[in-house]
Design brief:
The chain is α/β, with parallel strands linked by helices. It has two domains: about 240 residues, Rossmann fold; about 180 residues, no CATH class. The chain is built from 21 helices and 23 strands. The strands form five sheets. The protein has a nine-stranded mixed sheet with strand order 3-2-1-4-5-7-6-8-9, with helices on both faces. Helix 5 crosses helix 6, helix 6 runs parallel beside helix 7 and helix 18 runs parallel beside helix 21. The chain is globular and about 80 Å long.
Length: about 500
C-alpha cells in the first residue's frame, strides 16, 4: 500500500506514501471495477501505472514526475496528468465509469499545507467533513467518488484503519449515502509484507444511489478474483453507527460473541471505565534524562527527598499486577533513574536544586520544546498519583497494575484515578476476566507489530459488567473471540 512511517527522517518514497501494489491485487481490483472494455477508468494516484496499464481507456493522476514518466512508458495509450489530484479534481469536468487504485496513505502529521487544505475543502463541499486527524487516503476516495458517472464503481486498497479509525467514518458515511453497494473485504494476511500496516479492500458500485447496509467479508488470505466475494455479512448502518460507534472491526468476531457482548454492554448493571475513573496520560517532562535522577545522583547533589517523586518511566518497568513498595526499593537498590525531580512553581528553591538547574545539562533541557513553553521551565506539570497504571501499548493483553507504592508515571503509560476508592478491589478483580479483556480488544485498536493500543478515550469505553452478571457469562465464548481478535492484529506472529 502507500504508507508513511512514524520516523522523522522520511525517504521520498515514504513522504509520498508510495508502496506499490502486488499484481494479483491490481488485477482483481481492476476486474471488480470494470464492466466493459469501453469503460473510462480513473486511477487518482497512478504511481508507476500498474492499475492503468491493463485497460486501454484509462486516465491517471500522479504528482511525482519520475513515477508519471514510468506510467507513460507502461501505458502509452493512457492520459496521464502530472500534479496534485485534489487541484485537478476540483477543476475537471471529466467523469468516469469506474476507478481503481491504491491511494497514498500519508498520516495527518505529514499530510498538511495547501494540499491538505484543498483536499478537506473539496470534501466539505461534497458533504464529507473530515477531522484534523484524517490521513490522505480517505479524502482521496471521497474526491474520486465524486468524479464517477451515475452507476459508477470504484475498487481500492485501503488501510485496515477503515475498520476502526474515527477519521475514516466520514468516508464510509459518504459512501453509503452515494452508492447502492458498499463492500469492505478484510484480509488478515498482509498484502504488503514489508509494512507494519495492514490493508483491506474496498469496493463500491451504483454511484448515485444509497444503501442501508455495508457488506463485510473477512478472509484469512487474499485470492485473486474477477468479482468481489459472494459471501458477506450485511452490516446494518443503524447497528454500525449505534452499537459499534462506526467501527467494522468487531465484525471480525463470530456473531454470537458480538450479540452477547452487546447484551452485556447494554445491561443496567454494566458500566464503562470512564464512569468509574478518569483515564489520562502521565506527565510530560520534556527532558527525561534531566528530570529523572538516579538515587546515587540525587544523594550526591543533596536534593531534598520531598522533591523526589518515585515514578514509572515506561510500561516495561511495571510488574504484572501490583506495584508495591518492595518493587520501588529494588529500583532504588539497582540505582535506576526512578526519581522525578518534582519542583514547585516558586523561586524559593534549595541551593542544591538551584545549582542543578544552572548546570550545562539544565541549559540544554530548558531549550526542549515542552520546557521552554512553560513557566517556570523546571516545574513539570500534571504530576498525579493514580490508583492504577494502564498499559496503552500491549502484546497479549492490556495490563492494569495497582499503584500500592504511591508512584507517579510518565506519558508512556496511562494513569487511572477512581472516583470512588471503594471500587479498587472490584476493578482489580474484574480486569483479567475474559469479557473485560475482550472489551479491551474491541475498544482499543491494532498497532503495527502485533500490539494493541488503547488511547485514553478508548480505555474510557471499556465495559465492566456487574460481578453478578459476570458469573453467568460463558467465558469460553469470549476467550475464543479474544484469540480471533489477537490473530487479526498478528499477536504472536508479527
Amino acid at each position: 500500500m502507500r504508507s508513511v512511517t512514524r520516523s522523522s527522517r522520511l525517504t521520498p518514497q515514504k513522504e509520498a506514501g508510495a508502496y506499490y501494489t502486488p499484481d494479483p491485487v491490481v488485477g482483481s481490483l481492476v476486474s471488480w471495477a470494470l464492466r466493459d472494455d469501453e469503460d473510462r477508468l480513473l486511477d487518482p494516484s497512478c504511481g508507476d501505472g500498474r492499475f492503468i496499464r491493463g485497460h486501454r481507456n484509462s486516465v491517471g493522476i500522479e504528482q511525482d514526475p519520475q513515477a508519471a514518466m514510468k506510467a507513460m512508458s507502461v501505458a502509452p495509450w493512457a492520459l496521464i496528468h502530472e500534479g496534485d489530484f485534489f487541484a485537478w479534481a476540483s477543476a475537471t469536468e471529466e467523469r468516469f465509469d469506474c476507478a481503481a487504485g491504491n491511494p497514498p496513505f500519508i498520516r495527518y502529521q505529514t499530510f498538511k499545507g495547501e494540499v491538505r487544505a484543498r483536499a478537506l475543502n473539496l470534501c466539505a463541499k461534497l458533504g464529507a467533513q473530515f477531522s484534523g486527524l484524517a490521513s490522505s487516503w480517505a479524502p482521496f476516495l471521497v474526491a474520486t467518488a465524486s468524479l464517477l458517472r451515475r452507476g459508477g464503481r470504484m475498487s481500492f486498497v485501503v488501510p485496515a484503519e477503515i475498520g476502526h479509525a474515527p477519521y475514516a467514518s466520514p468516508l464510509l458515511e459518504y459512501l453509503v449515502e452515494h452508492f447502492e453497494i458498499v463492500h469492505v473485504v478484510a484480509v488478515r494476511d498482509k498484502l504488503f509484507p514489508d509494512l507494519s500496516e495492514d490493508c483491506w479492500l474496498l469496493h463500491a458500485e451504483g454511484y448515485g444511489g444509497s444503501t442501508k447496509t455495508i457488506r463485510f467479508t473477512s478472509v484469512d488470505k487474499f485470492n485473486r478474483s474477477k468479482r468481489p466475494p459472494r459471501e458477506f455479512a450485511c452490516v446494518s448502518i443503524y447497528e454500525w453507527r449505534g452499537d459499534w460507534k462506526r467501527r467494522l472491526r468487531p465484525y471480525l468476531m463470530p456473531q454470537q460473541a458480538r450479540e452477547l457482548y452487546q447484551l452485556v454492554a447494554g445491561d443496567a448493571g454494566s458500566q464503562r471505565l470512564g464512569e468509574l475513573a478518569t483515564v489520562g496520560i502521565g506527565y510530560v517532562s520534556g527532558a527525561n534524562d534531566f528530570f529523572h535522577l538516579r538515587p546515587s545522583l540525587a544523594a550526591e547533589l543533596g536534593i531534598p527527598s520531598n522533591l523526589l517523586q518515585p515514578t514509572v518511566r515506561n510500561g516495561r518497568a511495571l510488574p504484572e499486577k501490583n506495584l508495591t513498595p518492595s518493587v520501588v526499593k529494588k529500583w532504588i537498590k539497582d540505582d535506576d533513574p526512578i526519581y522525578l525531580l518534582r519542583l514547585p512553581k516558586t523561586e524559593n528553591l534549595p541551593r542544591s536544586v538551584i545549582r542543578y538547574i544552572e548546570t550545562d545539562d539544565a541549559k540544554l533541557a530548558c531549550e526542549a520544546y515542552k520546557c521552554r513553553v512553560r513557566t517556570p521551565w523546571y516545574s513539570v506539570p500534571d504530576v498525579q498519583i493514580p490508583d492504577f497504571f494502564l498499559t496503552y501499548m500491549s502484546g497479549r493483553a492490556a495490563g492494569l497494575v495497582r499503584n500500592s507504592a504511591s508512584c507517579t508515571c510518565t506519558n508512556s503509560v496511562h494513569s487511572v484515578r477512581l472516583r470512588d476508592k471503594r471500587m479498587i478491589s472490584q476493578l482489580y478483580d474484574l480486569w483479567d476476566t475474559p469479557f473485560v479483556q475482550l472489551s479491551c480488544e474491541l475498544e482499543g485498536h491494532p498497532l503495527g507489530g502485533g500490539m494493541l493500543k488503547l488511547e485514553p478515550r478508548e480505555a474510557s469505553q471499556i465495559v465492566l459488567p456487574s460481578p453478578m452478571l459476570l458469573a453467568e457469562l460463558p467465558g469460553n465464548a469470549f476467550e475464543d473471540a479474544i484469540v480471533r481478535m489477537q490473530s487479526w492484529r498478528h499477536y504472536g506472529t508479527a
